[in-house]
Specification:
Serine Threonine Protein Phosphatase 5, Tetratricopeptide repeat, 160 residues, 2 domains, mainly alpha, disordered N terminus
Length: 160
């Protein structure tokens, strides 16, 4: 906590502005401008290597680029900083799912669901894990349909 306070106090005006601009990164995701995303994230991490939002974005961008091991490692770093971060658990679960490490994937999606049990993506990932393990996932599909009927219509074909 003291380190976090020190980082905040010692940041220059320019550094604070760069961190403030992290909110523009999602628009770059929409454009799939991965080069600019990496540059923006790296600038922020050079200022504060433990900036959670930047680390989560970095993990997600690695996942989208197919750099699954890198994504998992960054998500693990996030959990070392904040063990209760549901997004970091979700990103680790996604990575382990892609690596076919289903027990580890299920552990992390269960952790994510402890903190946000009404998150559509978390529920769908757990349903996918159970399906891949040959286990019943119908309750989760019903929950996902209740949470977000329109999005469920887009993904239900993967469960038929």
């Amino acid at each position: 906590m003291a380190e976090k306070q020190r980082n905040r106090v010692n940041l220059s005006k320019e550094a604070k502005e760069k961190i403030k601009n992290i909110h523009g990164i999602p628009q770059l995701f929409e454009k799939e401008d991965y080069e600019k995303i990496h540059a923006a994230i790296d600038e922020i991490l050079n200022i504060n290597k433990n900036n959670m939002q930047a680390l989560l974005f970095k993990s997600e961008i690695y996942y989208r680029e197919g750099k699954i091991v890198d994504s998992e490692e960054i998500a693990e770093k996030c959990l070392n900083i904040d063990p209760n971060n549901s997004t970091a658990h979700y990103l680790r679960a996604l990575s382990f799912y892609e690596m076919d490490k289903l027990d580890k994937a299920q552990h992390h999606v269960d952790e994510a669901l402890k903190f946000k049990n009404d998150n559509f993506n978390f529920v769908i990932l757990k349903a996918n894990i159970l399906k891949k393990k040959g286990q019943d996932h119908s309750v989760l599909l019903n929950q996902a349909q209740e949470l977000h009927p329109q999005r469920f219509e887009e993904v239900k074909k993967y469960f038929e």
